[in-house]
Amino acid sequence: MGIPQGPAGVRGALWRSLTVYRWVSLAYAVALVGQTLGQADRPALGVTLFGVMTAWSLVMSVLAPAIDGRCPRLLAVLVAADVTLCAAMVVLTLPVGPRSGHVLPGMWSAGGVLGAALLGGTAGGLVAGLLLSIATFVERGVVNDSSIGTAVLFLLSGTIVGYLSRTALVAETALADLLAARAGDAERERLARRVHDGVLQALALISREAPRGLPAAEVAAMAAEQEAALRELLRTPAVAPVMAGAAGGRSGGRSGGTTAGRTAGRATGRSGGRVPRTGSGISADLVEPLLRLARPAAPGRGAVTVATPGAPVPLGVECAREVVAAVEATVDNVARHAGPGASAWVLVEDDGDRVVVTVRDDGVGMAAGRPEQAAAEGRLGLAVSVRGRVRELGGTVTVTSRPGAGTEVELRVPR
Predict the structure, then answer these.
(1) Reported pTM
(2) How far apart are CA 253 and CA 256, in angstroms?
């Protein structure tokens, strides 16, 4: 995720706002002066000045936003010309005729100050405001409360707008950097999750089972499968996961029963996308793939019992896949870390605006702070495969455990 910058960002919005200001102030000047211009000494010169103001407003409205961020030198020349022309417009109102007979408002000329402030920040606005202030004193021919007030207005507007525009641009850049960093962190976590669910589990399985005589042909097949999955992941880093099913199925087969493990791997949708869809395909039923995680107790492993509401629990297809993958990772953690023969109970609840899945086991439990310690040691099952997935769905994960009393992991996912 990013934010628009350049013409589509804060600077572009400021230039467009200045364009609106130019045309509104020009309309105000025409409406006000048009009533008294006939009393001026040189009304034709006044009309000419209005023509120049109109033409220049059109030039600045079109060119300044278009070249901002693309041609900085040309923009600087254009803004300098803008300030010079605005000062000239102020001075040239003097030969039009006596001020008692007409008024050429200084509002339009303030556009040059604001443009310099947008380009040069506080310094640019201050210099332009000073130039317009001098032009005002020349046009008035006297230093009085009126001319001083106008000069102060030019100086303040240039300084304040310059400071605020520069602050807004700095904030925009900082926000863009923050969003880029977040996107990078999210991508790294996504890759870590896929690697953990696939390659790391496959390597852990080989390390655990090789001394027991894991067939070489199966090791070779697993290696080839994970190599292909990694290559696919590197080719398309932003697409849905493609690699976890292989290791998930095989590791499940060795550590928790071949049929149950492979079935569970397919149910998550990680290797075959077999999350049953309902309706038009926008939603998927969470119940069926979770029921496939159930298995009876066997020597060296505990049972997995799944309890559901007895009716479909619809979720978005991708959301359902991620929830099932997170639940499977939690059940796998029970088999790996809860102790020999530990059983797990999976409870699915449909609360209307959210879905709650609770995984509870009767294993050895864990001490406070153990999940964080495991993540620091590089063991990413709970931190990445479970919490990372649910967090990306906008949900939360709560872990409750104490030594000797088992562990309960609650996943809350909003619809």
Answers:
(1) 0.51
(2) 6
